[in-house]
Amino acid sequence: MKIGILTGGGDCPGLNAVIRAVVRKGIFTYGDEFIGFLEGWRGLIENMSTPVDLDVVGGILPRGGTILRTSRTNPSKRPDGIDRCLATLEKNQIDSLIAIGGDDTLSVAQKLYERGVKVVGVPKTIDNDLGGTDYTFGFDTACNIVCEALDRVHTTAEAHNRVMVVEVMGRDAGWIALYSGIAGGADVILIPERPFDVDKVAESIRQRHERGRYFSIVVVAEGAKFSSAEPGQGAPVLQDMGKDEFGHVKLGGIANILAREIEKRTGYETRAVVLGHIQRGGSPSAFDRVLATRYGLGAIDMVHRGDFGCMAALRANKIVSIRLVEAISRNRTVDDEMIQLIDGLMPRAEERATVPR
Ligand code: F6P
After folding, report:
1. If you average pLDDT over residues 73-102, what whole number do you get?
2. What is 288-324 written as a DSSP string?
3. How far is the CA of 279 from the centre of ligand 1 (A)?
4. Is any ligand 1 atom within 6 A of the Cβ of residue 125?
5. Is the pTM of this model over 0.85?
6. What are the chain's domains?
7. Ramachandran region, residue 136 (left: φ > 0; alpha: ψ -120 to 50; beta: rest)
8. Pocket flag, ligand 1, residue 126 (CB < 6 Å)
């Protein structure tokens, strides 16, 4: 079979591990041939491709980023975008396509499937918020990076008697903040799922310091929201008003605002740290290498089983096939049971900073 493969959306440690697994099993087990389309859906719109064989995937397992590069190109927003994708697939005599991406990339995959393309999806996002699957690769690596950063922030916070507010990725879901905040021993964890009251955040820090501690660590997801009218008015904090082709605004900056408000209310010296794309860069963790490899092996088997319009998913530690529409129909946000993990570690309910949904 001649199979196209592409990576779309924000990059994520483990993308190369998926490509490698797909290509190795495809060649060794099924005798497939692979064409990589470059820069996500832009590669299909503009017919930018490269052959991918065993030599090309040699040595890429530990490499971050993606050898196929990526973009947030949305064919539906380009003149004749979907038709041009179809024309490229035909021109290159592609029998089936493996699209590795998050909900945006996979929503385009679904559109192509509806137009007759034999497509299989692989879930990707460090935010871990894709529906239908228990974990996406890249999330574990991101949490390890944040956890290490928190350990480092701890020692400098302790040395200076400071409050440190650490902003992590997490547009709609607070998985990174939750996992890394717990692993890194954060004193306050703020996630998009539960708007927070800045007065209560300040009060919980003040009480901690009254209990004899002289520093505090706050982890805040970039998509977290102030619950009160002040200062964010219940909306996420934006870097600017620009939107990408899938309609997403650029989040960022909540740590700076929060640090200022905490310092104003408590009088404690407070600093903001924004980890940004450091969370997405570099080598995948061992867990993510294995998970990405399992997804890749699952996806190539799905192609040969004819499971099109489907995505490889992890459910109860098994790789299974689910419909693409199931994955893209809703975000997997942090549920109440997981939120209770935060609450279980914090002081009494009346001192808690977040507002229950
Ligand atoms: O991939 C999701 C994500 O990591 C979000 O958490 C974040 O808002 C976004 O990517 C940032 O992406 P970009 O690379 O476009 O700045």
Report:
1. 97
2. HHHHHHHHHHHHHHHHHHT-TTEEEEEETTEEEEEEH
3. 10
4. yes
5. yes
6. 2-137+284-328 (3.40.50.450), 140-281 (3.40.50.460)
7. beta
8. yes
